[in-house]
Specification:
There is one protein chain. It is built from 24 helices and two strands. By secondary structure, the chain is mainly alpha-helical. Among the domains are: 268 residues, no CATH class; 42 residues. A two-stranded antiparallel sheet has the order 1-2. Strand 1 and strand 2 form a beta hairpin. Helix 12 runs antiparallel to helix 16. The termini are far apart.
C-alpha cells in the first residue's frame, strides 16, 4: 500500500510524540529512540516530497460543510513550501539528536520529546496547509507547544515567561482569526490557491484591517518589534535546545513564510519597487527592529538573552527585504530566513554546550574555553561571523541581496534603510566580538580554573558541525540555493518568473563569489603574515601588575568581556532609552497589562453586590441591543 508522503510528514512526529508522552520519564532511553525515529521519518518524507513537488503536490480530505462554509483538510507542497518543510524537519532532527545528551537527567524527557515532536507536526501542518483556517490551527499548535516547553524550565521564572509568550502570541493569533473572518466575508474562500489567483487589493477599511492583522500575527511569530518581548523572556526560562528549535528556527520559518504569503499570495500591494503606505510601514518596522534589538543585545550579560535579542534583530532584515517588493530584496529576505535559522540554531546549541560543560551562560563568569571546547568554539565562531554578515559566510550572501534590492527602490528612504541595515551588521559584529572573547578567548575565571572542562558529547557536537558547515556552504556556494531554492520560491509566490529569477540571481551569485575569492586571498595573506611573525622569538609572560612579574592577579583584576560594552549604555541619549526599555516601557505585554489592570479595577467598582443595580445593567444592555436591531431594520 502506498502512503502519501505528505501525511507521513504530519503523522510521524505526531505519533512519535504520543509514544514519547506515554513512555514518560521512566523510559527515557526509549523516548529518545522514538523521538529520533519520528523526526528522522518526517525528514525523509519531506525530502521525498521536495524532490517531487515541482510544480506542486496536493492532497485533500473533506472535513466540514456548514451553511455554505466548507473546510477541507487540504495540504499542498510546492517549490517553496516543500523545501521549507525539509528545513524545519532537519532542524527538528538535529535538536532532538542534541537533546539526547543535553536533556539527560535534567528534564522529564518523555514530555520534552513529545512537545518537540508535536511542534514539528504543527510546523509542517502550517507550512503545507492550503487553507488559512487550517494553517491557523496548526500555527496555534506550535504556540501551545512553545508554552509547554517553556514551562519545563526553572519554576521560578518559567511560569511568567510561558505566560508572557502565550499571551503575546495568543493575542496575535486572535488577530489573525479576525483577519481570516474579514477575508472570508469579502472573498468567500480561504483556500490559499484561490486567494493567490484573485489577490485582494488592500483598499477600504475591512481589507486594510485584515492585512494589518495578518501581518501582526506573522511578525509576532517571527519576533519582530514591537511584538518581540516574548523571545528574550523565553530565553531566560526555556531549555536551551528549545530556544534553538522554536524562536531561532521554526518560528522564523513560519512567521516569514506567512509574511511572504500575505504580501504576494493573498494581497496585491502594487508594482514592485513602488513604495506605498503599507510597504513603507513594513520597511520601517524592519529597520527599527534591526537597530533596536541589536542595541539591546550590546548590553546583555547573559549569553542566551544576548542571542535572543539578536534573533529579534535579524528578523528586521527579512521584513525589510520582503517589504520592498523588489524581487532581489525579497529573495534576500527569504534566503536570510533560512540562513538565520541555520546560524542562530548553531549559536543556541553552542550556548547550550557551554552551559552544560561550564555550568553557566553568564559572560562575566566565563572565559578561556577555546582549548577545552575546540569544536564548540569553531562552530560558534563560524556562526558568529555568519550572523555578522562577514564574507564568505551565508549571512553575507543574504544581506548582500537585501542591500542591492533596497538600493533600487524609487524612494529617498533607500539610502537611509541601507545605512540602518549596514550599521546593524556592524553592531552585531561588535556584539559577537564580546561573545567570542568572553566565552572562549578571555582569561579563565578562578571558578573555572578549578574545574576540568571538556568538549561536549558527540551527539551535541555533530549538530553544531553540520550547521556550521551549512553556514560555509551557503556562503561560498550561494549560487546553488539561489537557483534551486530562491528562484522557485519567487516563482511560486508570483513575484517573478522562474527563468527570469534564475538569470537575476545567477549574476548576483557570481558577484558574491568574486567578493568571496578576494576575501579568501586576504585571509591567506594574513595567515602568511602571522606565520612569518611566529618565526620571530617573542617573550611571553603572564598578566602582572605594577611591574611585579611574580604577582598573580586575583579575580578582582580580571577584565571580563562585558566591561567595555557597558560604556555604550552611558552614551548621551542612550541611557534613558535603555532604562525605559528595561523597565518595560516598550513592552506591549507590560503596557497592555498595566491598562488591563486599570480596566479590571474600574469594572470591579461597578460590581457592588446589589441585585437591583445588576438588573438595571441587564435592562440597559437589552434595550441597547433592541435599539440596534430596530435601527438595522
Amino acid at each position: 500500500m502506498n502512503v502519501e508522503p505528505l501525511y507521513v510528514i504530519l503523522l510521524a512526529p505526531a505519533i512519535g510524540g504520543l509514544l514519547c508522552y506515554v513512555l514518560g520519564r521512566r523510559m527515557a532511553p526509549a523516548s529518545r529512540v522514538a523521538a529520533l525515529v519520528g523526526s528522522a521519518t518526517a525528514l525523509g518524507a519531506a525530502v521525498l516530497v521536495a524532490l517531487d513537488a515541482l510544480p506542486r503536490r496536493s492532497t485533500a480530505i473533506p472535513w466540514l460543510d456548514v451553511g455554505g462554509f466548507q473546510l477541507t483538510l487540504a495540504f499542498t507542497a510546492n517549490g517553496f513550501t516543500a523545501w521549507l518543510t525539509v528545513a524545519a524537519m532537519a532542524f527538528g532532527l538535529l535538536c532532538v539528536l542534541y537533546s539526547t545528551s543535553w536533556c539527560a537527567g535534567r528534564l522529564n524527557e518523555g514530555r520534552y520529546y513529545a512537545f518537540v515532536l508535536w511542534s514539528l507536526a504543527g510546523a509542517a501542518g502550517a507550512l503545507l496547509a492550503d487553507n488559512l483556517l487550517l494553517l491557523l490551527i496548526a500555527w496555534e499548535v506550535v504556540t501551545l507547544m512553545l508554552y509547554l516547553l517553556v514551562t519545563l524550565g526553572p519554576a521560578e521564572v518559567s511560569r511568567k515567561a510561558a505566560a508572557k509568550s502565550f499571551a503575546i502570541l495568543g493575542f496575535s493569533d486572535c488577530a489573525m482569526l479576525l483577519a481570516i473572518v474579514l477575508l472570508w466575508t469579502q472573498t468567500k474562500t480561504l483556500s490559499l490557491g484561490e486567494l493567490a489567483s484573485a489577490r485582494v487589493v488592500p483598499v477600504g477599511g475591512a481589507m486594510v484591517t485584515a492585512f494589518l492583522l495578518l501581518v501582526a500575527g506573522a511578525l509576532a511569530k517571527a519576533g519582530a518589534m514591537p511584538l518581540h518581548t516574548w523571545v528574550p523572556a523565553a530565553a531566560e526560562a526555556a531549555p536551551t535546545p528549545v530556544m534553538a528549535l522554536l524562536p531561532a528556527a521554526l518560528d522564523k520559518l513560519l512567521g516569514i513564510y506567512l509574511l511572504a504569503v500575505i504580501c504576494f499570495g493573498i494581497f496585491d500591494l502594487g508594482a514592485p519597487g513602488t513604495p506605498n503606505t503599507l510597504r513603507v510601514i513594513l520597511m520601517l518596522v524592519g529597520a527599527a527592529t534591526i537597530l533596536g534589538a541589536v542595541g539591546m543585545a550590546m548590553i546583555q550579560h547573559d549569553l542566551r538573552k544576548l542571542l535572543s535579542f539578536h534573533a529579534v534583530s535579524q528578523v528586521g532584515y527579512m521584513v525589510l527585504g520582503i517589504g520592498t517588493g523588489i524581487p532581489l530584496a525579497i529573495a534576500g529576505g527569504l534566503f536570510h530566513m533560512i540562513n538565520h535559522a541555520t546560524y542562530k540554531c548553531c549559536l543556541f546549541l553552542g550556548a547550550g554546550a557551554v552551559e552544560r560543560q561550564a555550568g553557566t551562560t553568564e559572560l562575566e563568569k566565563l572565559g578561556g574555553l577555546a582549548r577545552a571546547m575546540p569544536v564548540t568554539f569553531a562552530a560558534m565562531a563560524i556562526a558568529a561571523l555568519s550572523i555578522s554578515g562577514v564574507p564568505p559566510f551565508n549571512g553575507f550572501a543574504s544581506k548582500w541581496l537585501i542591500y542591492q534590492g533596497v538600493l533600487t527602490l524609487k524612494s529617498p528612504l533607500a539610502l537611509l534603510l541601507v545605512a540602518a541595515a549596514v550599521f546593524g551588521s556592524a553592531l552585531t559584529l561588535a556584539s559577537f566580538v564580546k561573545v567570542i572573547y568572553g566565552v572562549f578567548l578571555g582569561r579563565r575565571p578562578a571558578r573555572l580554573e578549578e574545574q576540568r572542562i571538556e568538549e561536549a558529547p558527540l551527539s551535541m557536537c555533530v549538530p553544531m558541525i553540520l550547521l556550521a558547515a551549512v553556514c560555509v556552504c551557503f556562503g561560498v556556494a550561494a549560487a546553488w540555493p539561489a537557483q534551486h531554492l530562491l528562484a522557485p520560491a519567487l516563482a511560486q509566490l508570483g513575484v517573478i518568473e522562474n527563468a527570469e529569477a534564475q538569470v537575476m540571481l545567477s549574476w548576483t551569485a557570481e558577484a558574491m563569489g568574486t567578493a568571496t575569492v578576494l576575501l579568501l586571498l586576504g585571509v591567506v595573506a594574513g595567515a602568511v603574515i602571522v606565520w612569518i611573525g611566529r618565526s620571530v622569538k617573542i617573550r611571553e609572560t603572564d598578566v602582572y601588575l605594577g611591574g611585579d612579574v611574580n604577582y598573580r592577579p586575583s579575580e578582582v583584576h580580571r577584565a571580563p568581556a562585558t566591561g567595555f560594552y557597558m560604556t555604550v549604555r552611558e552614551m548621551g541619549g542612550l541611557e534613558s532609552l535603555y532604562d525605559n526599555a528595561e523597565s518595560g516601557a516598550f513592552d506591549v505585554y507590560h503596557v497592555g497589562g498595566s491598562y488591563g489592570i486599570g480596566l479590571v479595577e474600574a469594572l470591579r467598582r461597578l460590581h457592588t453586590g446589589l441585585l437591583p443595580l445588576y438588573v438595571g445593567w441587564c435592562a440597559l444592555g437589552l434595550g441597547a441591543i433592541l435599539a440596534v436591531i430596530l435601527a438595522l431594520g
